[in-house]
Amino acid sequence: MKRWQILAVLLGALLITAPLSRVHGQDEDEEDDEYEEYEGDDSDEPEAAGDDEPSEKDVVILTSKNFDDTVLKAEFALVEFYAPWCGHCKRLKPEYAKAATELKEYNSNIVVGKVDATEEKELGEKYDVQGYPTLKWIVNGKASDYGGGRDV
Q: Which residues lie in Acidic residues bias regions (predicted)?
């Protein structure tokens, strides 16, 4: 088995069950919370991680300025394209942070990053982002859709 295949299997094992599965099993009477109302302030300061939410210290914030140097030059990268208002993205955030930490412990050369696709529209278009969150698995600069689980 090739090295990238082993890493893909490991990544799939880390992210077994999608937190999005709750939406698919929703009763008709339940209110659809896909578009949750933002209740925070408009500051650009990152939120401090709570006791139950893991730190995002191993998730690289990607922009058009650092994307090519960070992701395309890495052997392996997992990139989340997200929207700050997206409820699915908010639910994925702690699992993605856990996966980033575990992957970094496994191999420090794996880049786990995220792109605010509402701000970095050109990157979203380049990688054919149609909805949020969109995960791309990039091996030696070649991107493919990530189809594994979304829970560590």
A: 27-55
Alpha helices in the chain (DSSP H): 3-14, 21-24, 67, 87-106, 121-126
Summarize pLDDT for 69-119 with one digit per residue, the tens: 999 889 999 999 999 999 999 999 999 999 999 999 999 899 999 999 999
User: What is the identity of the amino acid at 33?
Assistant: D
- The size of the chain, in residues, is 152
Question: Which one is catalytic: 12, 24, 50, 88?
Answer: 88
Q: What letter does residue 148 receive in the DSSP assignment?
A: S
Residue type, 139: V
Respond yes or no: is residue 24 known to be catalytic.
no
Cα 10 to chain centroid, rounded: 16
Span 9-27, pLDDT tens digits: 555 545 543 344 344 333 4
From 12, 25, 89, 131, active-site residue: 89
